[in-house]
Design goal:
Blueprint lengths: L1 H24 L3 H34 L4
Helix pairs in contact: 1-2
Length: 66
Amino acid sequence: MVIVRLLLFLSLATIGVALVLYLFKRDRRYLVFVGKVGKFALIVLVAVLLFFAAERILAPVLAPLL
């Protein structure tokens, strides 16, 4: 869960900085960057959570084999 928290914190910090830069410079590139960071963070978050779910589901099945 540390990975998820770190990803969330870094994503929110990056989005916050990009939004502040957009407010000062009014350059739409920052809004595009916010969208890309949000999309990437969401994809990585879903992948990590799916890995955790698979681990919980498969651990009781695979544990006796080890």
